[in-house]
UniProtKB/TrEMBL annotation:
<keyword id="KW-0276">Fatty acid metabolism</keyword>
<keyword id="KW-1133">Transmembrane helix</keyword>
<keyword id="KW-0443">Lipid metabolism</keyword>
<keyword id="KW-0456">Lyase</keyword>
<keyword id="KW-0444">Lipid biosynthesis</keyword>
<feature type="transmembrane region" description="Helical">
    <location>
        <begin position="141"/>
        <end position="163"/>
    </location>
</feature>
<comment type="similarity">
    <text>Belongs to the very long-chain fatty acids dehydratase HACD family.</text>
</comment>
<feature type="transmembrane region" description="Helical">
    <location>
        <begin position="21"/>
        <end position="41"/>
    </location>
</feature>
<dbReference type="GO" id="GO:0102158">
    <property type="term" value="F:very-long-chain (3R)-3-hydroxyacyl-CoA dehydratase activity"/>
</dbReference>
<protein>
    <recommendedName>
        <fullName>Very-long-chain (3R)-3-hydroxyacyl-CoA dehydratase</fullName>
        <ecNumber>4.2.1.134</ecNumber>
    </recommendedName>
</protein>
<dbReference type="Pfam" id="PF04387">
    <property type="entry name" value="PTPLA"/>
</dbReference>
<feature type="transmembrane region" description="Helical">
    <location>
        <begin position="183"/>
        <end position="203"/>
    </location>
</feature>
<keyword id="KW-0275">Fatty acid biosynthesis</keyword>
<keyword id="KW-0256">Endoplasmic reticulum</keyword>
<dbReference type="GO" id="GO:0042761">
    <property type="term" value="P:very long-chain fatty acid biosynthetic process"/>
</dbReference>
<comment type="function">
    <text>Catalyzes the third of the four reactions of the long-chain fatty acids elongation cycle. This endoplasmic reticulum-bound enzymatic process, allows the addition of two carbons to the chain of long- and very long-chain fatty acids/VLCFAs per cycle. This enzyme catalyzes the dehydration of the 3-hydroxyacyl-CoA intermediate into trans-2,3-enoyl-CoA, within each cycle of fatty acid elongation. Thereby, it participates to the production of VLCFAs of different chain lengths that are involved in multiple biological processes as precursors of membrane lipids and lipid mediators.</text>
</comment>
<comment type="pathway">
    <text>Lipid metabolism; fatty acid biosynthesis.</text>
</comment>
């Protein structure tokens, strides 16, 4: 059994790590938001995807650590809920945007980037201030209010990206395996993307209503105080 002194030291190390993680993520998503806005204010020769690609790959994939944080008890979050939220974004970034050109065109990408970046700047800022002592009320209010508009926008952007990608995936047979093969296994990536789009039908309302419940707890408690 660890001594109280050792436990306190480990607790402080975890706290400092989480402070650093949330600070870096706040900066990272601020950079992505800046690049998104700057792209439309001063269009150049690069595409939107090429403009944000490096930052998006780094900071979105870094969010996989949040599943570890939840699973190890570093934060009080559901590992399953966290895993789904992170996985849906990682699939779009790595399995759709990296893999196809079609997903990078149209409204899907800018909608997703707009919703993701604003949401994450607010979310990580909340976590950062909570860890160092107190969260300004306006930031807490934004955390539990902006999702009402941003969540549907983000989901719409994600679905548009996946929908545009699935046609190209089908035509090129990306990441798919046909019989016969040495593994005696068949896999169709286009069908998987269809399945993922269908999953949004039951899961989006649940997560959306869950956030309303969290909003009532967080802001209702503040009002009662």
């Amino acid at each position: 059994m660890a001594s109280p002194k050792t436990s306190r030291k480990e607790s402080l190390e975890v706290k400092y790590y989480l402070i650093g993680y949330n600070f870096v993520q706040t900066i990272g998503w601020s950079i992505i938001f800046y690049k998104l806005i700057f792209y439309y204010l001063s269009p150049g020769t690069k595409t939107l995807y090429d403009t944000v690609r490096c930052s998006l790959d780094i900071f979105q994939n870094a969010a996989v650590l949040e599943v570890v944080h939840a699973a190890t008890g570093m934060v009080k979050s559901s590992p399953i809920m966290t895993a789904f939220q992170v996985a849906s974004r990682v699939v779009v970034v790595c399995g759709v945007l990296m893999a196809t050109n079609a997903a990078r065109e149209g409204l899907g990408l800018p909608l997703a980037l707009l919703a993701w970046s604003i949401t994450e700047i607010i979310r990580y800022s909340n976590y950062f201030f909570n860890l160092i002592g107190s969260v300004p009320y306006f930031l807490k209010y934004l955390r539990y209010t902006t999702f009402i508009v941003l969540y549907p926008i983000g989901v719409t952007g994600e679905l548009l990206c996946i929908f545009k990608a699935q046609n190209e995936v089908g035509q090129r047979q990306l990441y798919s395996m046909k019989m016969p093969n040495n593994y005696n296994f068949i896999f169709n990536y286009q069908h998987l993307l269809w399945f993922l789009m269908l999953l949004y039908i039951p899961l989006f309302p649940q997560l959306y209503l869950y956030m309303f419940g969290q909003r009532k707890k967080a802001l209702g408690k503040q009002k009662s105080n």
